[in-house]
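thought: fold this chain, then report.
action: predict
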Amino acid sequence: MLSKAEERLCTHSRKQARGGHSCTVTRSNTSHDISVCILKALAYLNMNEPHSPITLSIDKKAQPILHSAAYVAARAKFVSINLAALKKLAVDLRHHFGNSNGTSHWLESAPALVKDYFESLSLENRILYLTVFHSIGFCYWAEQKSKPWTIEIAEEVVSERKYLSTQVFLQTDLSENNGKCDSKYKSKYNGAMALLLSMATNADFLNLDYLARLNVEQFKVLLAGQASENFDSLALLKERHEFIVALAQKLSGENYLHALLPLLGTASARELVLKFAHELPGYLDTAQYDGQEILFLKRAQLLVSDLNQTLVSSGSAAIYKIEELTAFADYKLPQLLRHYQVLTYEAALAQRIDEQIELEAGSAEEVEIRAATIVAVELIKQELEKLGFASSAAAIDNQLWQLSQKLDKTKAKPYHRSKTVFY
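observation:
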């Protein structure tokens, strides 16, 4: 089944690219095609400076997502990679990693309450928690002049009540004094951290029978919890509701997680990504570009990466060939890479992003931003290897994402905005 899916998903053109960019294919000594993609990146910040060639040798079967990204990057009209800035960032990252192995996982930056809750779960419930999270974890940004959805919470109070169901939780004040707490005990979270926190304070997110019967209004109550602010600014609630209900019905109806557990010890990362992309609602993250189907599969890849981290931290073996994962193309990594001048946008595109004008999901500009992000992280990995530091694209993504959360909002330019269920 997977080999047919791979054959359908991984068919890409081998024709010469337009505008002087090229992507040629040579035959390796194995049964796999090795695509040698010649990209062009800016050698300097000035758009008028000469370009420098970049060569990527890609195993098309083992790395279909990277192959897709390179296909786009070789033909890109709106987004360029600044090779000099990329090399500088790689050096800075090498110093940042220091003597560590650079494997700090993004979930380690979650609130202590979330980490404590997650560690209290059985392995199967940890897998369920992550699968539900990634099924509804996308598009956290708010419209202009609107504030994003946040959760303001008193951690030591909620930690005593984190296993409550929706019905009990909604009837419980967060603390004395009419639900208000001393400000020094409050923390405010938005984006993915708000969702993680919402799920960690309500056990109904792990109740598949309950989730399978949710209507939209019940889902809003479940997701918002007690301490939400600006919940109405969270986009695509209808889609999130559809995904969580469909997911719960599939997982419970097929005993999916029970069958998945042994696969995590035998299937490769690529096989698991393709499995999730085809079988879980909302995970088939693809686009069309220059007549070709382009694979991103961001949430399927991130789920596999997080499952791998969970297995390893539980003392189990890592998922086979986890290094096949690419960067997880979203909106925070491109913002960071642009901040460090690794990604350079065509002037009109840069202006649209800076003015927070939405890009249509699947547009050439949006596809190029995501593809360039994947290719840039792969090139950073190669530069780190030259500096004597072996890492994976997924591990580098984790580090870059955590750095993106620390950007000075007064200095960093905005991230691109696309209303999409894929990230």
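thought: worth noting. Confidence is low (pLDDT under 50) at residues 1-32, 43-49, 157-184.
final: tokens above.
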